[in-house]
Amino acid sequence: MSKTKNPGEALPSVLILGDQLNPNISSLAGKSPDNCRILMVENTSKIESKRWHNQRIHLVISAMMHFADELEKKGFEVDYLKSSTLKDGLEVHRKTYEVSEIIAMEPMNWDGLALLKKLGVNLVKNNQFLCHYEDFADWSAGRKKIRMEDFYRWQRTRLDILMNEDEPIGGKWNYDDENREPPPSDGRSWPEVTLFPLDDIDRGVIDRMPEGWGEPPKGLWPTTREQAQKRLREFIETALLSFGPHEDAMMKSEWKLSHSCLSSSLNLGLLHPEEVLKAAEEAFLNHENVPLNSVEGFIRQILGWREYVWGVYWLWMPKYRENNFLNAKRPLPPAFTENAKTQMSCVGSVISNIHENGYAHHIERLMVLGNLALTAGIDPHEMNEWMWANFVDAAEWVMLPNVVGMALFADGGLMSTKPYASGGAYINRMSDFCKTCKYDPKKRTGTDACPFTTLYWDFLHRNRKTLKTNHRLSRQLGGLNRLKDLESTRKRAKEVLTLLDNGEL
Length: 505
Ligand code: FAD
Ligand code: SF4
Hints:
505 residues, alpha/beta, five-stranded parallel β-sheet, two-stranded antiparallel ribbon, 22 helices, binds flavin-adenine dinucleotide, binds iron/sulfur cluster
């Protein structure tokens, strides 16, 4: 139970932010119930600022409250405040207690860091990643290209993960060629994820949270470290072995395939990347049936992509969020904001999964939602805001490079060497969506033409001048030059964009 200290006793307060929910965070090092108080602030104006996905807002508040409860059970005195801003929360706390200093771990975002510095909070280095952003900046200094692959190999080597002395285990760094299988058509079942029963804290949050979008919370997303560790074990035991081959596949009947569903737990701090990587590596080393391509593919996502995205966010902020290289200005389409009111089978399926779970897996985010937004010219900032509100795992540091950089090419190629634009052929190859769609992925003109295919060519045409120096696009731009029906494709693209804007596509 919480020890209530004399409010007049001068002690340091440890401010714990909503994405730092782990007892091993650096700001708690050396701290005990006897030598500090804990401060947590629920930012009510942020909660009211958007129409959040119900499961997202619930997860964030519930996880904070569960962590506060855990610390209280360890004997800490926790001042859990609901304040309209963090600044107000700190003021109230300072007025209530004799505070010798407020300490916090460096926040996960640029504005948070600036704010805490301004508010006189003493910061300690963030330890929630394996590569701190200052170390990433050192690694990237002087490099012509900041390539994920180079960073990933450096991380594997220096941290000795999946290595045999200086060589990668298996002799290859990359098993992508084994990890791009289309969806299987054998009717197999996919690993289940266990739901966690809602407790009194969860129900209390449901009673007071603002009404949002999407299905109500059902215990899908871990709100405690214990639940997150269970989810990790379950993934390692049931899904890791099939993660690799179907990493890029999409299916109408299956929302997650063999993906781990661990991103929200990692991003809230409930899990540390090191324990996730260790669990995957150990599964490979100890169990013969866990194939290297799956383990390497999974480790690459966390040790490579996740840490890389974190590093480039800090390297390129604050200017990065202003990027709009292709000058995309179209508002978000109703197909995204309403529950799957679209006849595009792929978009409808992904949006209804988001409605149901606050989640879509990587290829759905990139090659369905991102691809449509890119080729239709949707404003990157609108796209970012929408994903931020609706994905359970959203956070600025991970959204900006993925949305602005990887999906929408709004940074002009800092993240990806070419835009991830594609027509319906890619989605047809990697999913079963097209089989039940009213549109034809092979067609680019006519009322039954696939909107992705039409918009792909129109996108290349519209941005021809801007993209012409990009050598990785020369084959596509050559194809555009040879297109006999460019005029009718452009005409259909105009109709498609109007239908998209009106929510009639
Ligand atoms: P798995 O497929 O099981 O992968 C394992 C882990 O690897 C993930 O949990 C995640 O932590 C990490 N990872 C994989 N790819 C990436 C990546 N590109 N960037 C960073 N980490 C990665 N991820 C978020 O955590 N939050 C977001 O808000 C987010 N928005 C995205 C928006 C777009 C447009 C795109 C293209 C990607 C986005 N991603 C985001 C990255 C990725 O899609 C998700 O991390 C992943 O789908 C989460 O599901 P999972 O836990 O089942 O991942
Ligand atoms: Fe999506 Fe086009 Fe396939 Fe329909 S035909 S599911 S719109 S890619």
